[in-house]
Amino acid sequence: xxxxxxxxxxxxxxxxxxxxxxxxxxxxxxxxxxxxxxxxxxxxxxxxxxxxxxxxxxxxxxxxxxxxxxxxxxxxxxxxxxxxxxxxxxxxxxxxxxxxxxxxxxxxxxxxxxxxxxxxxxxxxxxxxxxxxxxxxxxxxxxxxxxxxxxxxxxxxxxxxxxxxxxxxxxxxxxxxxxxxxxxxxxxxxxxxxxxxxxxxxxxxxxxxxxxxxxxxxxxxxxxxxxxxxxxxxxxxxxxxxxxxxxxxxxxxxxxxxxxxxxxxxxxxxxxxxxxxxxxxxxxxxxxxxxxxxxxxxxxx
Length: 301
Known about the structure:
Blueprint: E1 2-4, H1 10-17, H2 23-31, E2 40-47, E3 50-59, E4 64-72, H3 81-95, E5 100-106, H4 113-120, E6 124-135, E7 147-148, H5 152-158, E8 163-167, E9 171-175, H6 181-186, E10 188-191, E11 194-203, E12 211-217, H7 225-233, E13 241-248, H8 252-262, E14 272-283, E15 299-300
């Protein structure tokens, strides 16, 4: 049974989530205020009266939704819980008027349960991307001047791109749709000769000092990776600054070698985190959500 998550259920969810990888990520999702960055809800799944799974559905815009932070109690592994929960959330998204739902998961060359679940539910692989975080560097780099570039939306579509990553509290992949042309064009720049989509974020949590980050979508091959990255690293100097760069995964060897050449002291987990993600998505129809009715007790049936 699907229900909205409540804060008083934190301990019950954390009891099984702590036994799974990346608990800090799930903990941040469970303790953040829903709707602070994007509308949506956190959900839990009950079986036999127990909470056995959790997932969040974010409504990124009027068209797209995003599934993230799914965790299933290891004691209920291979019992169809993740499939049932995902199927229900697809229907919730359809009832909310979204026409597409996406998710990302770590990429590797073999098979994984999440790959099979996505394909079973009609989700297709949209692309494979490297998403690298760099930050908290002790060395400061001179900040280059950004030059605005018009028609970034059209440029990316001509390159064959279908979406871009956006980042406030996590990495979400939103489709390139005509209705968001002006928003995408507003953040189009040229940095040291290379066209990028670059958005600045400023975070402040519970009175603590702010953290300034940038999300960079790179779909143009830089003429000089070293010069380009030196410009980006100007946004990563200091204890509360960093950036995430998202780009086609085939480039990761070249880019990461160049990053190490520019900053030899990079330390995984401290000043960089390197990921390769698969993005899956499914187009929805209004009829996909007809069976979903939220009752007064906060459950979906």
